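Input.
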Amino acid sequence: MFVFYFLMSVCVIALGIFAMKRPDSWLFKRLGYDREPSDMWLSYVKFAGIISIIMGVIIIILGTQHLFQ
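Output.
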């Protein structure tokens, strides 16, 4: 079970790092939205990347409980 939690948290952390590095990527744009994203939207995506990195670390910490039971 720990392996599943670990892989899931690594994916969440990778998505957060990608959101911080490239907030204007196609992955974070709405469908059919062809305009340049605003500065507020880019800062929101970066903030969401920070939150997802924190959530990934929490998942790893809580997932280690299965190793010691």
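The first helix runs from residue 2 to 21.
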